[in-house]
Design a protein that fits this description.
By secondary structure, this protein is of the alpha/beta class. Helices cover 29% and strands 27% of the residues. The strands form three sheets. An eight-stranded mixed β-sheet has the order 1-10-14-11-15-18-16-17, sandwiched between helices. Strands 3-2-9-5-6-7-8-4 form an eight-stranded mixed β-sheet, with helices on one face. A two-stranded antiparallel ribbon has the order 12-13. Helix 3 (43-58) packs parallel to helix 6. It binds zinc ion (ZN). The site of zinc ion (ZN) has 5 residues, from helix 6.
Length: 417
Amino acid sequence: MKLIFSILLLLPVFSFGQKDYAKTIIDTLCSDHYKGRGYVDQGDVRAADFIVDELKKIGVQPFKKRSYTQEYDFKVNTFPYPIELVLGDDTLTPGADYLVNPISGTAQGEFDVVEVNKENYKKIFSAINFKQMDPSQTTFAFNFIDCKNEDLLKEVNALSYKATQYFPVLTVTNKKQMYSVGRQQTTYPLITIDSAAYSKVDKAQIKVTNKFIPKYTSKNVIGMIPGKKKRKYVVFSAHYDHLGMMGPDAMFPGANDNASGVAMLLSLAKYYMANKPNYTIVFCFFSGEEAGLLGSKHFVSHPYFRLKKVKFVLNVDIMGGADDGVTLVNSAKQIEAYDRMVAINDKMKLLDKVKKRGQTQNSDHYFFSQMGVPAFFIYSMGSVKNYHDIYDTAENTPLNKFDEVQTLLQEFVKGIK
Ligand SMILES: [Zn+2]
């Protein structure tokens, strides 16, 4: 009875692959409870708690005399309250039809709309003194989508930001919109409307209320699996935060960016629990990345071990589907490590391509690199194109070649001297 029972118990474990496990992690982190892992309802902290629980389940330890979490704080602008934009009779959908600029302030009410475009801007700008406008009466809609003059566009863009000191501003765009995290606030909102949802109207209802948090406490989650050589380290990092909520209805789930990276680290943790590593493996789940690499910056200036003892940092961000392979940021300067990665990939026939790229300040590898620690930032290339929008969902993240990327990373770490 006991034997049969344990076989039954083991069967699903064997049939449950890395990718399936990763899917469950992404489904969880992108669910409503985590609020897009931003700063509304402490979505990021909820995610940190989940990751800690998962590390405990897997058997990953905290560092001696430390907890799993490392707290630090920063200022951030948020939109926890209902957001509304009605153009004429048309109620627009937040996230899909428009984005509230993350540094926006507050405005509420009905406004007269003055459209400013390439035909009338000179006349309007010479006739109106922005500073004397009544901010409860009028809004300007900057519509320059058919303008090809780059200098003018730049000027208009700068002006639209500046104008938010005096009144709420609408801008129209036909380019892909991307949300981000605001760390300051202006007086009035700046709302960017997708040209497909925009129509020239006389009246607009605007309701945007920001909540600026001068001291928001966020936390990195750090765990480790001791290696045969305990005091030498290989660091895997992935940011778990994303962009959170823009009002209660628009959530940015961040499945590809970067629930997928979190899933990769947890999947690697399972592997290293079963296969004792040569060097101690550190897992850094950073927060505050989307707010400006804040978590990794904090960790690098308050590390748990001497950074000189780190053999390599492998930062994964955007692991959603490597149909076309991966890019290694920093590899242009670390040719030996890059060549080794390519050789492993060729030998094991894992991915289509391992692409070389120079240094960039676009993810959590950056501050390690600045301290002279060898580091790669690895991102997947392929069919997943949703980025910093409401469509970066678990359903849209197929995890193609997820297992192959994991194998590549494991084999690379095996060969670190
Ligand atoms: Zn990211």
